[in-house]
Write a structure and sequence with these properties.
heterodimer, A: about 475 residues, mainly alpha, 3 domains, two-stranded antiparallel sheet, 20 helices, 2 strands, globular, B: mainly alpha, two-stranded antiparallel ribbon, 4 strands
């Protein structure tokens, strides 16, 4: 009894000590940068004091660190309780699967009965749930995506966000080939996105080619740039490669910014031709989409079309990746990620292997870029800055390098929350930076999903593959 | 000719700043073999801390330039090194022994955090410092169009940099901390086995690197008078280029590389085009890594299985 009390007291005093130390450090860190605000030309020179802000931030640090320490010292009991609760929920769910399905259907029927106008939404949710229960998570995700425009046909804002989300899903899948499968850290992926976007914009404007003729060209150009970058630098080690790709991305952006006669510089390229429905434009004219199919003209037609277009492009990316992973080149990528020296000693040419990864990843980046250009109708170098590369990389990292469904979920969660909380731009970027750090610290193989190599020797290994990758082999 | 000499002086001043930042990259790379991507942003944080410290000193009436400068150096080095320590503690230490790309990704995250934190705390607009140190000396006047001049700030930058470099080289070569650092650089595990407190040594390395970066930040602030939250990114990549060019892991190499990058950038802007000066620096990075991956003064790296 008394022993337990002393233990509690010592936990408490430890936590208090931790919290006090943390707030002293926080005071040192924040005293100048948060305690004072530098005036600028518009707000008047000099300093403004912000003691309240400083005090509240330090208070948050104190309380936060105190709670974390308490949790940390009581971690084993807490973890056990959480695990028990989770298994209990899972057990219940499997036991009453049929009842759950019936309950969902009943709720859905009731919902439609009371709010008939919302039937598309209900249909989408029910279909997603049922497919999810019977076929698993990926299938549910796909059904949700396919039915999304049906449910939100009247809401162009959500459709717009969904298109952006899918663009990032595609970019994430494209980069996943390079980073996740081949293990090459590419910090300049946005350069290929930019090459795709500018090739479409310039070709379409100069030669009047249609989107469908330009799309493969944009991919080709991007792949060409991937090889161009790849040839000289792929002999470099992981982190050097990262910095060089970063430099390459910046060079592409600076050239786009300064080559005014070709790219129109910082003003960007405007009035880029819109994608047509295989030659039928989306307008109110006689030969437009609506008139051809006997519908009433509605600008949402184009949005829905763009939605399905990017969905198809993303699914193609996914499909190609899944197929490639079963081919020798895909196996070589994964082997390269796990251990480059072993790959080399087995007679696989690492340079060619890396080049194909770079070129294919870049090609999908180019496709996404062409789509971006046709959706926006306007592009400028501002859209292709380093933070964009970092965002795509973060999607791949958070999703679990190499895992397709993980990347899709990460892209959805991140871009959707980014779009919905647009006002808190800097806050969300700070959080997103910390998330990258946190993932590396706690779940270096990805938060959402982890992916082991497709094929590896399961027997007679002294150390697991995971440990080799972590440098302990 | 005068123009050339003038650019030489400008280039040396700029190169000194890059050199100071490059030391941080090269030391960290030498010891734990990672690229501290957030180091450029530590430089930016140092510049902001220095600016606030200057303004506080002006507000409380300390206007004597040497005293103010000394106090600002002290404050900025202290507080910025705290940032260096915190970054290492939060983002890098838990990753020791993780897979090889983990620290780099974590560093990119930290760089994003620092940039947006400063933007949140101080706003996105550029901040200015009225010129504190004025005065120029004419070195050469042949009666042509150009006169070769060196400003007091440039003298200050070059002298401070070389003083710090000398002090730092002494620290690495002749103190027990320096010996620990060199031991960790050669073999972290072995150093730990032989009783070197590796965690402490690595922390101190980050502290010192951040302190030097903050001095670079002060010099940048005094030289240009204008800073914003974004200066760390480009300066960081260039300083990294300098470290690679000089041979990563080598201290004199970092300084030499910094000076070279400063000179190349200045001459490129002077004789070719200002718009493409960053392209010049980045291209050098790529070219050096391809043809001379060990840099000018670096040792060849042996890849071990």
């Amino acid at each position: 009894m008394s022993a337990a009390r002393t233990e509690n007291a010592s936990v408490l005093s430890h936590a208090l000590k931790d919290a006090l130390l943390a707030s002293i450090v926080a005071f040192g860190l924040f005293i100048l940068l948060l305690g004072f605000l530098i005036g600028d030309a518009r707000g008047g020179m000099g300093l403004t004091q912000r003691p309240a802000l400083l005090a509240s931030v330090i208070g948050i640090v104190f309380v936060g660190r105190f709670l974390i320490s308490l949790l940390y010292y009581n971690a084993p009991a807490l973890r056990a309780a959480l695990t028990r609760a989770w298994t209990a929920i899972l057990d219940l769910a499997t036991q009453y699967k049929t009842a759950l399905v019936l309950l969902v259907v009943a709720i859905a029927i009731g919902w439609i009965f009371f709010a008939p106008a919302q039937w598309p939404l209900v249909v989408m949710l029910v279909a997603t749930l049922l497919v999810g229960i019977s076929l698993g998570f990926s299938a549910a995700f796909l059904v949700f995506a396919i039915l999304f425009p049906v449910a939100f046909y009247d809401n162009p804002y959500y459709l717009g966000i969904a298109i952006i989300v899918l663009t990032y899903v595609m970019l994430g899948w494209g980069l996943n080939i390079v980073v996740g499968l081949a293990g090459l850290l590419d910090l300049g992926y946005v350069a290929f996105y930019a090459v795709g976007a500018y090739s479409y914009a310039i070709i379409a404007q100069m030669y009047g080619w249609s989107f469908w003729a330009c799309l493969p060209l944009a991919g080709l150009f991007a792949a060409f740039f991937g090889i161009l970058l790849g040839f000289p630098v792929l002999r470099l080690r992981g982190d050097y490669l990262a910095i060089v790709t970063l430099a390459f991305g910046e060079i592409v952006r600076i050239v786009l910014l300064n080559w005014v006669s070709f790219t129109n510089g910082p003003n960007g390229i405007g009035s880029i031709p819109r994608a047509s429905f295989f030659g039928i434009p989306f307008n109110a004219e006689e030969n437009g989409f609506a008139a051809t199919f006997g519908l009433e003209f509605d600008p949402t037609h184009r949005t829905v079309f763009l939605f399905y277009l990017i969905l198809a492009l993303a699914l193609i990316t996914n499909w190609v990746t899944l197929r490639l992973r079963k081919l020798p080149v895909g196996r070589a990528w994964e082997a390269l990620r796990e251990d480059e020296i072993a790959v080399r000693s087995l007679g696989i040419n690492p340079t060619n292997t890396k080049l194909t990864a770079f070129a294919i990843g870049a090609m999908f980046g180019g496709f996404a870029g062409a789509f971006f250009a046709t959706r926006q109708g306007f592009i400028s170098p501002d859209s292709f800055t380093f933070p964009e590369s970092a965002l795509i990389l973060a999607i791949v990292v958070l999703g679990g390098m190499g895992s397709q469904i993980g990347v899709a979920i990460a892209a959805t969660v991140m871009t959707a929350s980014f779009e919905l909380f647009r006002e808190f731009e800097q806050f969300r970027l700070v959080i997103f930076g910390f998330a990258m750090v946190g993932i590396m610290v706690w779940r270096p193989r990805g938060l959402i999903s982890t992916r082991e190599p497709t094929a590896y020797l399961k027997e007679r290994k002294t150390i697991s593959v995971e440990h080799v990758a972590e440098g302990r082999g | 000719m005068e123009y050339f000499l003038q650019q030489l002086i400008n280039g040396l001043a700029l190169g000194s700043i890059y050199g100071l930042v490059a030391i941080g990259y090269t030391m960290v790379y030498g010891i734990i073999g990672m690229i501290n991507f957030a180091h450029g942003d530590i430089f930016m944080v140092g510049a902001f801390i220095a600016l606030i410290a200057f303004l506080i000193l002006i507000a409380i009436g300390i206007t004597a330039v040497p005293l103010a400068l000394f106090l600002v150096l002290l404050i900025a080095m202290l507080l910025t090194s705290l940032y260096g320590w915190a970054v290492e503690r939060i983002a890098y230490r838990p990753l020791r022994g993780s897979f090889r790309l983990a620290p780099l990704i974590s560093a990119i995250g930290m760089s994003i955090v620092l940039q947006n934190y400063v933007q949140l705390a101080q706003g996105a607009r550029v901040k200015t410092l009225p010129p504190l140190i004025t005065g120029v000396h004419t070195l050469l006047d042949l009666g042509n169009r150009f006169v070769v001049q060196i400003s007091n700030i440039q003298i200050l930058i070059i002298v401070t940099t070389f003083a710090l470099m000398t002090g730092f080289s002494w620290l690495v070569s002749s103190t027990s901390l320096g010996r620990d650092m060199r031991a960790c650089e050669q073999d972290l595990k072995m150093a730990a086995l032989l009783g070197v407190d590796t965690n402490r040594t690595i922390s101190l390395t980050f502290l010192i690197g951040a302190a030097l970066a903050s001095v670079a930040g002060i010099m940048y602030l005094l030289y240009y008078g204008v800073i914003d939250f974004h200066i760390g990114f480009v300066a960081g990549v260039k300083a990294f280029t300098a470290a690679v060019l000089g041979g990563i892991g080598s201290l004199p190499g970092a300084m030499l590389g910094g000076l070279l990058i400063g000179l190349i950038e200045t001459y490129w802007s002077a004789y070719f085009s200002v718009q493409y000066k960053d392209v010049a620096a980045f291209s050098i990075l790529i070219i050096v890594l391809i043809f001379m991956p060990t840099g000018i003064l670096g040792r060849p790296e042996v890849e071990k299985v």
